[in-house]
Amino acid sequence: MLFANFVNIMDNKIDLRREDVTRYIMPLREGGSLPALAEAADGFRYVLKFRGGGHGSKALVSELIGGEVARRAGLRVPELVFLDLDEDFGRTEGDEEIQDLLQASRGLNLGLHFLNGAFAWDVTVNRTDSFEASKIVWLDAFLTNVDRTARNTNMLLWNGELWLIDHGSSLYFHHNWHGWEQAALSPFSYIKDHALLPLASMLPEADEFMRSRIDDAFIEALVDAVPEEWLVQASAEIPSAEQRAVYSSFLKQRLANSKIFVDYADTTRKKLV
Known about the structure:
Blueprint: E1 18-27, E2 36-40, E3 45-49, H1 56-72, E4 80-85, H2 96-104, E5 107-113, E6 119-120, H3 130-143, E7 155-158, E8 161-164, H4 180-184, H5 203-213, H6 216-224, H7 228-234, H8 240-256, H9 258-272
Parallel strand pairs: 1-4
Antiparallel strand pairs: 1-2, 2-3, 3-5, 4-5, 6-7, 7-8
Helix pairs in contact: 1-7, 3-5, 3-9, 6-8
C-alpha cells in the first residue's frame, strides 16, 4: 500500500487513489495548519493535510508536487492519497478550532500514509550515505523547500530507512506570484541551513542522476494532476490554467538551470566542512 503510487520512470502518469475520511483521530501538532491523524474508508490511517489550514490549498499543491518529485527520484515518501471530507464531517467535534478547520476543509484534501512507529530523523545520531544526502539536498534546492533544517528535519526513521515527509513549504514563490521568473533562477540561499548539506558531497553526481529521472514530460503530467479545486481556492484572481502554466514553467526552468543551485549548494557545503 505504501508504494501503491510509485511512478515508473518510463510512465509519466500520476495516479493517486481517492478515499473518504471516516474518522478524525487526533491533531498531530500545534500550529496554523493543524494536520491530523485520520482514518479513511480503506481502513488505513493517514496524516491528513487540510485545505482549510494556515496556507490553504497552496500547501497541498506543494505537498503533492514535492512528494511526487521525490518519489520519481526513488526517494522514500509515504503514499499520497486524495482524501474527501464530507459536508457533515466534524459536526460533532467538541473543539471549536478543529470544527472550524474541518468545515473549512470540506471537499478534497491530501493524506500521507501514516508510518506507525516512525521516529524523527536526528542528524546528530542517524546517518545516511553521501549520495542519498546529495539527492535530498538537490531535491529541496530544486523545489525551494525552506523546511528541512536540523531543527525540523521533516525526515523519519522507519524500519531502519530514511523517509521524507512534509513538502508543504516548497515552491514558496506561489505565495506571491510576482517575480516567479527570478525565483526559478535563484541559487536558493536557504540551502545553507539544510540538515543534510554537510553530508552532501556528491552534488554533481546527484544532479546528473536527478536530471535523468525528471524531465519536462513528467513535470507537465505532475502539474496536470493538481486538482482544479485546489487552484481555484488558492488564487481565485488567477485562472487555474495560468497557475498551471507558471508551475510548469518554474519547474522546467529550474531543472534546465540546475547548475545554478547545485554550484551554490556545493560551494556552501565546502565552507561548512
